[in-house]
From TrEMBL:
Residues 1-24 form the signal peptide. Keywords: Signal. InterPro entries: DUF3515. This is DUF3515 domain-containing protein. Pfam families: DUF3515. It comes from the Bacteria. The lineage of its organism: Bacteria, Bacillati, Actinomycetota, Actinomycetes, Pseudonocardiales.
């Protein structure tokens, strides 16, 4: 009987230790700052425009008064992609295909001289730059403020000249 009690206590201790080690490993991965992203079609990701824009983007974004640091992307990282913030990241992708929602009647928004097409999603929205020679998508969680859109607009306006819209 004593042996059974000792074995039960030892088994419970082993389960607790394994659980703590596993949780620690998950926390280390989450806190490492690496963000895994699925690839999306971006045929112009290697374009000169994306090569000009990506390094010009800010290292930090301000959203609702909080500073969002740039995130390291997990390998294999999509080309011409940048992310900021944790746990809900803001993700910019350059060189995307033309968004199908871009039509002559689409409601565009202008921020710092950059025309954006907002596309609502579940829990987030993607805003597409539609008046440059490459399409750029900025996906922001619904909880984000307008600061990221403003800061990215400033970088786009400074580095990429406007072009006519293509429907």
């Amino acid at each position: 009987m004593l042996l059974a009690a000792v074995l039960a206590v030892a088994l419970a201790a082993a389960v607790a230790v394994v659980s703590l080690v596993a949780q620690s490993g998950r926390n280390d991965q989450q806190n490492s700052g690496q963000l895994a992203l699925v690839p999306v079609p971006a045929p112009q990701a290697g374009s000169p425009s994306c090569a000009t824009l990506i390094p010009a983007l800010p290292a930090d974004l301000i959203s609702n008064g909080a500073t969002l640091k740039r995130r390291e992307l997990a390998a294999p990282a999509p080309e011409a992609t940048v992310a900021w913030g944790q746990p809900d990241a803001i993700v910019l992708r350059c060189g995307l295909e033309r968004p199908p929602e871009l039509t002559p009647t689409a409601q565009l928004r202008v921020v710092s001289g950059v025309q954006w097409l907002p596309v609502e999603g579940e829990g987030s929205s993607t805003w597409y730059v539609v008046d440059r020679d490459v399409y750029i998508g900025l996906t922001v969680p619904d909880s984000a403020g307008t600061g990221p859109l403003q800061e990215v607009s400033d970088a786009v306006a400074a580095k990429l000249p406007p072009t006519p819209l293509h429907f």
